[in-house]
Write a structure and sequence with these properties.
The protein is of the alpha+beta class and about 240 residues long. Helices cover about 20% and strands about 30% of the residues. Bound molecules: fe (ii) ion.
Length: about 240
């Protein structure tokens, strides 16, 4: 990884909504057989209106991440890529596949707790394993921002309200890595990752400068009072299955 300096790196990180990463993609065929995982085997996320295939989560003890053998053992190539390209270079976090049926919509939401909105980046790593990358949109006051159709892992800001309508004619599978992975603006490894990504993909960078949050953004938190009842924790799911 080259260390090119970027004058406004703090601003790039703080305002980041979307940026592709200059790391390798998961290998071809790494989710072969995934269609055999039926809806009843997955965890339904009512808040985001999508299904989840948990690959590595802290279901026994909070913040202690463990593989979920019944799912990750089906995808050894993906597991190797996660270990070699993501966890060692980027960090270790809960890892899930978000599953959205054709023509279905993931509800508008924010992937951050209300009390982490100020001062915590809430950056998340995503990779679209199957489907259209550009079906993800960020919602702002006056319009929506569509992300470009670039086949690379990317960082998105979980604090910016977003939604997704799957226009692909098959299920959309999105690899999602988040908490307790929590990159910080002071983390040298993360600064290098963003520097490398921005050096290559600055033309595709989407930042929040000049766009405003929608009026109802506070209602899109999972821990907003009305949404709390929708939360199903992973521990219950794993223990039931
Ligand atoms: Fe999300």
């Amino acid at each position: 990884m080259k260390n090119i300096s970027i004058d406004n790196l703090n601003e790039v990180i703080e305002n980041l909504i979307y940026l592709p990463l200059n790391i390798s993609n998961p290998p071809e065929g790494c989710i072969d057989g995934i269609e055999e995982i039926t809806d009843d085997m997955m965890k339904w996320d009512e808040f985001r209106s999508c299904n989840l295939i948990p690959l590595a989560i802290d279901y026994r003890e909070k913040d202690v991440i463990e593989w979920v053998p019944k799912f990750i053992d089906k995808f050894p190539k993906l597991k190797t890529w996660l270990e070699q390209e993501v966890f060692t270079k980027v960090g270790f976090g809960r890892t899930l596949i978000i599953v959205t049926d054709p023509d279905e919509t993931n509800a508008p939401h924010i992937d951050a707790a209300q009390d982490t909105f100020v001062g915590i980046l809430n950056h998340k790593l995503r990779y679209v394993l199957q489907g259209n990358v550009s079906d993800l949109v960020f919602i702002s006051k006056d319009n929506t921002t569509v992300i470009p159709e670039i086949d690379k892992p990317y960082i998105m800001n979980g604090k910016w309200p977003h939604m997704m309508h799957n226009t692909y004619d098959k299920r959309k599978y999105t690899l999602a890595i988040g908490a307790p992975w929590e990159p910080s603006i002071d983390d040298e490894q993360y600064r290098n990752l963003i520097t490398d990504a921005y050096s290559k993909f600055n033309k595709n960078y989407i930042g929040s400068t000049g766009i405003e949050l929608p009026e109802n953004w506070k209602e899109m938190f999972e821990d907003y009072d009305k949404n709390k009842s929708n939360h199903v924790d992973a521990k219950n799911f794993i223990e039931k299955t």
